Amino acid sequence: MLGAVAACLAAPAAAEITPTEVRFDNGAVAQSLTGVPGDPAAGAKLLSSRADANCVACHMIAAQPDVAFQGDVGPALDDVASRYSEAQLRGIVANSKLTFAGSVMPSFYKVGGHVRPGDGFTGNPAPADLGPILSAQQVEDLVAYLLTLKP
Amino acid sequence: GAASADPDPTATLIVNDQIEIATRAPAPDHLKDVFDTVQSGWLYRTEETRALQMDDFDNPAMVFVDLGLEQWDGVDGSEGKSCASCHQGIDSMKGVRASMPKVNPAGNDLWSLENFINACRTQRMGAEEWKWNSDPMKQMTAAISLQSRGMASTIRIDGAAEPYWEQGREIYYTRYGQLELSCANCHEQNAGKMIRADHLSQGQINGFPTYRLKDSGIVSIHGRFVGCIRDTRGEPFKPGSPEFRALELYVASRGMTLPIEGLSVRH
Ligand code: HEC
Ligand code: HEC
Ligand code: HEC
């Protein structure tokens, strides 16, 4: 039984930085979390996916006019690459609160410290080994996409 | 997008062309540093949804009121009694919803309307208690709530109720779930904004129980709280739990200057 569980939790690739190992410098994260370049097309999809990142729940993005119902809780993401560096964007996606203190924006690459965390949107309690909302590569994909957003 | 982000300032809730129910009111004193005005969730809905609440023939919640009235007259339990045996007509429940939740007769707990109903069922009728979100319970709270339509809230937040109110406030400002969002993050800081397809209201409960078009059914106050905490990737408290009853008192107090709507309609 335990063996089966361990086998399911695929070990992170050797170069991958786990959520607790991420080094923030004034909110920014200089080092890639995976060492593998992000895929901007995958990042574009993630941004508007309901299931995981769902960034458009709070952000409008003119570059994705086909995505219905974009929220306005946060600022529009248009041209965001001209306002922030790659390291800053990685830090904002991984843990926005280290850039914007007290932000309502969720921390997407963080484990532990949650109050009554659930198992996704089921309402059931989270498993003890609850991972971050996004994988390291998903963060890199999003960052790669955000970097394409410039005038 | 942002175009529809503010409630229509001209919308007025008049039910059956007769009963005008205020949907805006000065914020209660304890909330003055947060809002000048408190606003009913009705204002944040589309014109079509708002219209459904303006005529009892169109309001889908009224079917559930009728079912509740049948329960009211229905004999149940070992004592051979119905609610009507002791309380007579349902109009004897006028003002009851407007006073909820409140400290129980024994003075040792905070009770919601559902608790009072179950106390009568188990202690006075010898009947089984109804589950919090069961159909008969929601039908009964619907029928009872309608009797307070348009009435001012009479909840108490001082004296014996104060510790519960404090507990509820604490919960309101706690950031739950993996998304780390509190009630206040959405309904205080961002009321009026769009979160994906949803227009964020102030999260008031004066309109509850509510008929939700999405669910084609009645949603209780605690049912709504469950949904909102689930949406934070969180583990909600149980309906009827001490935490949700305390939260109910605190949220009710944030809208205590708004009249009870009886039965609202939401999308
Ligand atoms: C629940 C709301 C919410 C969600 C979901 C959310 N954000 Fe944010 N985001 C905000 C808010 C609010 C700000 C503004 C910072 C502040 O003041 O807290 C922000 C700021 C940002 C900024 C800086 C923008 C600027 O111009 O300053 C970026 C970049 C960003 N978010 C990206 C994302 C990405 C990518 C996702 C999804 C992975 C995401 N956000 C999900 C609320 C959200
Ligand atoms: C992630 C954002 C979010 C959080 C956090 C949240 N809600 Fe909500 N809530 C919503 C949305 C969206 C709706 C539906 C639109 C509306 O009425 O605001 C809603 C609706 C409601 C309603 C119904 C209002 C009406 O008039 O029909 C109540 C009551 C409510 N919320 C209370 C709460 C309470 C109490 C909490 C904290 C336990 C909470 N919410 C946390 C997003 C949220
Ligand atoms: C055998 C008598 C009896 C029966 C049957 C009965 N009740 Fe009661 N009920 C009472 C008494 C006595 C009280 C407490 C005094 C009061 O508030 O009227 C009470 C209180 C209540 C209250 C709280 C009122 C308030 O102002 O706080 C509600 C709500 C209520 N009953 C609903 C019901 C419902 C619904 C039923 C049927 C499912 C029912 N009762 C059946 C005797 C009864």
UniProtKB/TrEMBL annotation, chain A:
Keywords: Heme, Iron, Metal-binding. It comes from Cereibacter ovatus. GO terms for molecular function: electron transfer activity; heme binding; metal ion binding. Pfam families: Cytochrom_C. Signal peptide: none annotated. InterPro entries: Cyt_c-like_dom (IPR009056), Cyt_c-like_dom_sf (IPR036909), Thiosulf_SoxX (IPR030999). Coiled coil: none annotated. Residues 38-150 form the Cytochrome c domain. This is Monoheme cytochrome SoxX (Sulfur oxidation). PROSITE patterns: CYTC.
